[in-house]
Amino acid sequence: MSQTFDTIVLGGGIGGYTAAIRASQLGKTVAIVERDKLGGTCLHKGCIPSKALLRSAELFALMKESERFGIEAEGVRVDYKKVSERKQAIVEQLYQGVQFLMKKNKITVFQGNGRIIGPSIFSPRSGTVSIEQEDGEILNMVPDKLIIATGSRPRVLPGLETDGIRVLNSDEALRMEELPESVLIVGGGVIGVEWASMLSDFGVQVTIVEFAQRLLPAEDEEVSRELERLLKKRGVTVRTGTSVLTDTVVREPDSVKLSVKRREEQEELQVQKVLVCVGRQANIEDIGLHATDVKVENGFIKVNANMQTAESHIYAVGDCIGGLQLAHAAAHEGIVAAEHGSGQSPHSTPAHQVPRCVYSRPEVASIGYTESQARDQGRKVKTAKLAFQGLGKARVLGETDGFVKVVADEESGDILGVHMIGPQVTDYISEAALASLLQATPWEVGQTIHPHPTLSEILGEAMLAVDGKSISF
Question: What domains are there in the chain, each with its CATH number?
Fold first, then answer.
């Protein structure tokens, strides 16, 4: 049995279903093939459930400090079962919303394992998707355009393979039924830092180990150092420039023993659980790429600016192509693929114009180049850095840690990067993203009237401060 569609999307995560919706809006007949649940990692195993847990952890930490606000509260405790139930309820509500969007946009959803097949009786070119359904029936779907959006999964660290009990990855950690007393987090990137912040706020004794010389090595160095300082202030043990000696790992019934090494110094650790957060790898095995001319480099599908693979009618988006591996980036890539596949000329956003967010406490948000990256490009830069402690709204909120840093080109005046660590910065990094898109100068952003008192005021002041014109700092 075979059917034809204008566009078939292999994978129903945020990149996939966004591509499907946009293609449908452009008048195409569209189908999605998904082996699990629509929504993918972001909805079920990443963005949404982890942020729900982070919110509960943040609220618990705030309630324990309520006396700072003149409020006395006693007996505040965490019921982690209810925390998890709330998390799952949010996921389920949003999952229903995604299903509604499929019906609203008349997108056909096929449940099953999809594999790409080469030229056959169904089509003279590769790209037909063979779907193995739960009942064993095989369906063959023939597209005019195919969009691969198969996502990613947590990367495995050889010698520290997860077992779901003592050694976990981020997917498995979301399924924990109770909080451990202590945890070692291997990896100080975005995922590791968010888990460290969350678990620390819940009262877990946290140690984080990062092989690089600093946490969040992709972010501005000053931001990384400030985050490390604040995590340590909250009791998190941070070991940077440190590696795990995987041949020392001993899994016991109630704990894990292992050793870590920094330079020539070796330290033995014993914790209840180990959480491995060392990046993500693409889900591209067993999807039939061998039957196509699609190229794979460093474990990811290679695409051009329009998301096309080496076969012009086959596109790929999201985590399976590597890059930033962010949900909002995947969604944008899905739109680009759908529009280009429909004969339009979409706007493709370069990686440095995509905002990056870390939902730790305090939050981290950035866009563009770091100061060191800009200097490495041979640019003459001018910078400004303003601390939240000088902002009225930050003092009202009782959250004065952190700062906003602007990096600009001394010759052209262009904004090269904006880097923020502090309260709710993930909500107003979008202003900097818009400024980057419109190629605004710091002066132009500074001339924008920012309401008072708000946290966003600090961005306008930091832009003015680049040229020594800040009013309130």
Answer: 2-153+281-351 (3.50.50.60), 156-278 (3.50.50.60), 362-465 (3.30.390.30)
pLDDT at 342 over 90: yes
Phi then psi for 150, rounded to 5 degrees? -85, 0
How far lies 166's CA from each of 270, 272, 375, in Å? 11, 7, 44
Residue range 323-331: mean pLDDT, rounded: 96
Amino acid at 262: R
Q: Rounded to 5 degrees, what are φ and ψ at 20?
A: -65, -45
CA distance 357 to 354: 10
pLDDT digits (tens, 9 = 90+) for 81-109: 999 999 999 999 999 999 999 999 999 99
Tokens of 17: 């279903």
State the Cα–Cα distance between residues 353 and 366, nearest whole angstrom. 10
Rounded Cα–Cα distance for residues 356 and 433 (Å): 10
Nearest Cα to 469, choosing from 384, 365, 394?
384
Tokens of 393: 């709204």
Q: CA 394 to CA 472: how far, in whole Å?
A: 14
Q: What pLDDT score does 133 carry?
A: 84
Strands 167-169 and 363-368: unpaired
Catalytic residue numbers, as ranges = 452
**CA pair distance 314, 147, nearest whole angstrom:** 6
- Amino acid code (one letter) for 85: E
Q: Rounded to two decimals, what is the model's pTM? A: 0.96
End-to-end CA distance of the chain: 69
pLDDT higher than 70, residue 376: yes
**216 and 223 Cβ atoms separated by less than 8 Å:** yes
Residue 127 tokens read as: 């790209």
The pLDDT confidence band at residue 56, using thresholds 50, 70 and 90, is very high
Identify residue 34 by its one-letter amino acid code. E
How far, CA to CA in Å, does 452 sit from each of 81, 159, 392, 394, 428?
Answer: 40, 53, 9, 12, 15
